[in-house]
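As a warm-up, study this chain.
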Amino acid sequence: MTAPRWPPLLAGEVAATAAFPHDQTGLRHKRTIVVNNKNLPVVDQIFWAGYSGVTSLPSTAAPIGQTTDGLPVGVQIIGPQYGDYSTIAFAKLLEKEYRSFEPPPAYG
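Now compare it with the structure written out below.
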């Protein structure tokens, strides 16, 4: 039995930080979060998700770990054009063989 052939997949960040407390005050583009001890616009988080979107490539976000505070960290799996099922299948494989989603302590 031969191993299944996977199309080229790229794994990257879902966002620049792990999950963070939501702040709905004021205009969204004026809100900030702390990344590496610097205040950055919260909309910078969209940058990472936009990579696959601007190139019309499929992507699937999957849990890959947790911070020391128990907040979820994700990975974005980007596939080739029309490779939607491959990104989903790889996310399922990660869930089965590595780890599945675990709710943060306050929500478990």
